[in-house]
Amino acid sequence: MEDKRSVGRVIGTEDATPLEFWVGVAPDQFLQLDDVVATQRPLPGREPVQVYGIVSQVRARHEGVRFDSDVFLVADGVLPAETAEAALVSATRFEPEVFVPPLPGCEVFRAADNQRDKALGWERWTNRLPAGLSRDDEPIFVNLDFIDGTRGAHVNISGISGVATKTTYASFLLYSLFTSGVLGAEAANTKALVFNVKGEDLLFLDHHNRFLEAEDVDRYHLLRLPADRFPSVGFFAPPRRGDTSGVPDVAGRGEGVTSFFWSIQDFCHDELLPFLFADAEDDRQQYTLVVANVAARLRDAVPAGDGAVTIEGRNLRTFRQLVDFIAQRVQADDNAEWAGRAIGSGTVNAFVRRLYGAVRPLEHLIRADLANPDRHKIRTVEQVTVVDLHNLNDRAKRFVVGVTLRRTFEEKERSGSSRPLLFVVLDELNKYAPRDGSSPIKEILLDVAERGRSLGIILIGAQQTASEVERRIVANSAVRVVGRLDPAEATRPEYGFLTGVARQRATILRPGSMFVTQPELPVPLLVTFPFPSWATRVGEAGLTADTAPPGAAPSSGPAIDDDPFAGLPSS
After folding, report:
1. First-residue to last-residue Cα distance in the chain
2. Do 23 and 48 reside in the same domain of the chain?
3. Does this model's pTM top 0.85?
4. Are residues 394 and 488 in the same domain?
5. What would the pLDDT profile of 284-304 be if each residue is shown by its tens digit?
6. Which H or E run includes 132?
């Protein structure tokens, strides 16, 4: 420790414990929230203990006065008083591990370089994933072992929609994973499946951001990351409703997007019917018995070419035809074969009403009117696969997410290996895995959260309110990230990993700032992340994927707002 970094001494007017202690800040120095400090505690007959910590609170007050109004007398020079600053430090590490408090009077230093790494435990990590920058532009890392399944898995991100930039930070983490070298040779085969639920913001990941400036490029360089686009991205979008040619329903991007749908044959043989009823209340409805019986009967459908099927002599090429046929069979007098025995007419009618309610939202996604339907299946061929859902209603979104995740999960199970890894990015977790009730999608997400680590499926989930998401999904996330929070939400027990001060700060965080907590650090770290170097909307994709050199700043363009994250996509 060098004396020039000395910032004060441990004070004796407040209790010092192994968990936290107060530091009196020297008159010519200052400490701010999130600063990393170090001190040394001598021990009799043993080597001294190095104590490291992070500043979690700072205060300033007058000493030598009694009343609040004395501040005016002090300012006028009538009363003598001294201004004292003190910082509360939360301990992060003891070296060696002798858990004793620092003694009053011990000199405290600002930790930098190797000492900062020791304070945060980073020098022991073999796989350090860049997670952003501190407020003084020092790199902040996450231990990859707690993301890739080695010792833990999954990331959960919470924050207010449009302010917390959840989707932007999730895409930054993906970019860091693929470009930092932390995955080594595995990076080439590692995949990401991203569900785009709001707008067309993620349909331009393979374009450079024309508004990226030189200072933004410098921030990437501080993290030892290239300021570049995502080099390998595949895009899928639902077909345009009413269009018989299967043109993808996107407005901002005219090429490079493949439409997706499921054939009638896939729907029948893969038992996709339950995903039409993927509401959290379904486990309390009797018609779920009918769903199971009908799905079993549909497995007997005979392929009729180009995704169509024949059932009991009926050729079915559209979803509406299939729904009409199912409704006729379950409502027939001899419906025991399809609806099931001892199923009342009320239950059957409830099933039929729900089934017909799915026709309009899903008839363009379940069809057999196009040749070569296999070309329209969602595949994770590129490094990143974006599945656009923003033009679908909630029922159709649930169907697409549930069916895609189930197929992905089953493929990983059949592979018998956790490598290569597959990262799944899904926003609005509260819609797909709500705290109450049960549904096919929720069960799949629970499987991913609880068994995905062993299969190599890593969930990067996001939601506005963690209090509304199934507890086991959040609890199984080794790394948790919090952006701007609603004040009422910040008081929920789901955010118990935040300190009291961090909870307060989370209600005023600006876009581009997040609290990150991970198992090996007892306190959350505030990180900022660079402005996206990839386009996040059509207006930013003025330079095509092939024209801008990696890391280049544009020669001209509109000025960016004073807020460096103004104009980011809402998450």
Report:
1. 43
2. yes
3. yes
4. yes
5. 467 778 888 999 999 999 998
6. strand 128-133
